[in-house]
Design a protein that fits this description.
The radius of gyration is 18 Å and the shape is globular. The chain starts with a helix and ends with a helix. It has one domain. The protein is an all-alpha fold.
Length: 208
């Protein structure tokens, strides 16, 4: 059974990480000319404006209850108006990549904290504090890897749309209404989760 302290810290880091992910999208959009997220009050690290009952509460709770080795979930997407971006194609790519980059930066930051605390002997490799920070680090790596999957509405679909010809973007737009269903089917009926978990474990091991 998961240690309550490690679980609590992991959940707290998860919540703040999905919030940071969305704030990054909104902040980059704002810097690129779109104030929509700022005007909606979403450029804040207060979790309350970012909470989505389904993605932030119900989905992670289900995975925790099921005892899964990973947790899926997310915050309410920040509103972005691509028509207000100064250089739409480039800026939309930057906005889409910002969330993934933020989760990777958080993971790197946690890895450095873990290394530092181990170096000065404040934590031991098997202490609750180390395990809790490692859990938070793993959450962020998994969020980054998961969001790179090119299925709408994940960031990977928009990154692919901006990097490849317009025909790819049109396909992604057509998949948008059923994207979440396709994602659930892919997670349930294919080894996608296994591959994502392996990739996340590999990245985590490299950082540690």
């Amino acid at each position: 059974m998961q240690d309550p302290f490690v679980l609590a810290v992991g959940v707290a880091i998860f919540v703040m990480s999905v919030v940071a992910h969305e704030v990054a999208h909104g902040w980059v959009a704002y810097r690129c000319g779109d104030p929509t997220a700022k005007e909606a009050g979403r450029l804040t690290f207060n979790p309350l404006p970012h909470i989505d009952l389904f993605m932030t509460v119900m989905v992670p709770a289900f995975f925790l209850y099921a005892g899964a080795p990973f947790v899926l979930g997310g915050a309410k997407p920040v509103p972005i108006n691509p028509f207000l971006l100064r250089r739409p194609r480039r800026d939309w790519l930057l906005v889409s990549a910002a969330g993934v980059a933020t989760n990777l930066l958080i993971a790197v930051g946690l890895a450095l904290v873990i290394r530092g605390l181990l170096f000065v002997n404040i934590f031991s490799p098997t202490s609750q504090g180390t395990l809790a920070l490692e859990a938070g680090m793993m959450v962020n790596v998994f969020l980054a890897v998961f969001n790179l999957v090119p299925i709408p509405p994940l960031d990977g679909s928009r990154i692919v749309s901006m990097l490849f010809p317009n025909s790819v973007g049109r396909v992604m737009e057509q998949l948008e209404p059923v994207g979440f269903v396709l994602l659930i089917l892919a997670l349930y009926f294919t080894p996608l989760v296994h591959y994502l978990a392996v990739a996340a474990l590999y990245v985590t091991s490299v950082l540690l």
